[in-house]
């Protein structure tokens, strides 16, 4: 018997991707999967891609999760805190939601309009010293999807002092799975196809997380809904401080990170290349007109942006190689 694992919120897109990764993980045994409205249905009826996974979805209650060694929480923002507080003290927990990411309670209340549930160890292993902190933790808050794409592109620039922390602009496009699985008119195929649309302009909830993780002092962030099911492409620009090559800075920062790939010169990231993987693809240059640093980042929002990141964190929490059960390679076409 391996590590007993449960997933709360298993009926959503991130929850389904978690189930897929856990089912193929050599050290994890999936023992429970919970949901709200889908409780009582077989997993394969909700996630046809998981045909053959003989497990029933049960109600999202602490008792359904209590026998697991490790619980993944793939719940809507604001719902993880109360459930996590009812789990046994010895249970390791990875929260894919936002409830425990922010250290600043005022920032949480401003962007999420609810009481702050507390701060856990931040689950981005590629930040300096973070692998060791995650390995020592029993409760880990995984990153937001836009946040990881932006933080990986920006953090080394600010840490090395080659970019101004008070002048950062991000424009990022995400596939529709980032908006969740609940039926919404603006996410219907006929509404999304052939269209790009901004949303939460000037007030996206990942802004305080990105600032916290990178040290950015001022951040203009514009998210865009793209007509594709999964993937994020983030374009990050910053005012340079000195003439250091940002690509070389990124290469040095991620030389020992198996999932972060700084692409060869003149090769630019695109979302399809990361689909199905836990990898992030980066490229950097200077704008020939403005002189600003430009970094482009691509991830699978359900992989490195959600389920894959969560499994990577869990691997570290159990002393496993962080790549266990995860692919660095995407799928194509």
From TrEMBL:
Catalytic residues in the record: 145
GO MF, one annotated term: NAD binding
Leading EC class: oxidoreductase
Domain Semialdehyde dehydrogenase NAD-binding: start-end pairs: 4-135
Pathway, per record: Amino-acid biosynthesis; L-arginine biosynthesis; N(2)-acetyl-L-ornithine from L-glutamate: step 3/4
CDD domains in the record: AGPR_1_actinobacAGPR_like (cd24148), AGPR_1_C (cd23934)
EC number, as in UniProt: 1.2.1.38
GO cellular component terms, A-Z: cytoplasm
InterPro entries: AGPR (IPR050085), AGPR_dimerisation_dom (IPR058924), AGPR_type-1 (IPR000706), NAD(P)-bd_dom_sf (IPR036291), Semialdehyde_DH_NAD-bd (IPR000534)
Gene Ontology biological-process annotations: L-arginine biosynthetic process
Swiss-Prot/TrEMBL catalytic activity: N-acetyl-L-glutamate 5-semialdehyde + phosphate + NADP(+) = N-acetyl-L-glutamyl 5-phosphate + NADPH + H(+)
Domain of life: Bacteria
Compartment(s) of residence: Cytoplasm
Keyword field: Amino-acid biosynthesis, Arginine biosynthesis, Cytoplasm, NADP, Oxidoreductase
Chief place of localization: cytoplasm
Cytoplasm in keyword set: yes
Oxidoreductase among keywords: yes
Protein purpose: Catalyzes the NADPH-dependent reduction of N-acetyl-5-glutamyl phosphate to yield N-acetyl-L-glutamate 5-semialdehyde.
Family indicated by similarity: Belongs to the NAGSA dehydrogenase family. Type 1 subfamily.
Name of the protein in its database record: N-acetyl-gamma-glutamyl-phosphate reductase
Source organism: Spirilliplanes yamanashiensis
């Amino acid at each position: 018997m391996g590590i007993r694992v449960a997933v709360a919120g298993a009926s959503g897109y991130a929850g389904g991707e978690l189930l897929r990764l856990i089912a193929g993980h050599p050290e994890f045994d999936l023992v429970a999967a919970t949901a709200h409205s889908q409780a009582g249905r077989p997993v394969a009826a909700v996630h046809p891609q998981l045909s053959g996974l003989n497990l029933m979805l049960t109600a999202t209650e602490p008792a359904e999760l209590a026998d697991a060694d490790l619980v993944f929480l793939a719940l809507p923002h604001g719902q993880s805190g109360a459930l996590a507080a009812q789990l046994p003290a010895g249970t390791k927990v990875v929260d894919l939601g936002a409830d425990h990411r922010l250290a600043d309670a005022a920032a949480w209340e401003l962007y999420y309009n609810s009481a702050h549930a507390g701060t856990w160890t931040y689950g981005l292993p590629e930040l300096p010293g973070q692998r060791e902190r995650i390995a020592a933790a029993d409760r880990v808050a995984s990153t937001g999807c836009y946040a990881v794409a932006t933080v990986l592109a920006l953090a080394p620039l600010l840490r090395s002092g080659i970019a101004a922390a008070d002048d950062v602009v991000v424009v990022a496009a995400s596939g529709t799975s980032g908006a969740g699985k609940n039926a919404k008119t603006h996410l219907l195929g006929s509404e999304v196809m052939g269209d790009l649309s901004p949303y939460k302009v000037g007030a996206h909830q990942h802004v305080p997380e990105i600032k916290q993780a990178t040290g950015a002092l001022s951040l203009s962030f514009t998210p865009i809904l793209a007509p594709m099911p999964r993937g994020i492409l983030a374009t990050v620009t910053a005012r340079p401080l000195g003439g250091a090559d940002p690509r070389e800075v990124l290469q040095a920062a991620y030389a020992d990170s198996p999932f972060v790939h700084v692409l060869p010169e003149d090769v630019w990231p695109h979302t399809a290349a990361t689909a199905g993987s836990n990898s992030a693809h980066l490229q950097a240059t200077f704008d020939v007109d403005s002189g600003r640093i430009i970094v482009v980042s691509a991830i699978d929002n359900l992989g490195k942006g959600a389920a894959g990141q969560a499994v990577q964190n869990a691997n570290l929490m159990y002393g496993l190689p962080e790549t266990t059960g995860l692919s660095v390679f995407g799928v194509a076409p």
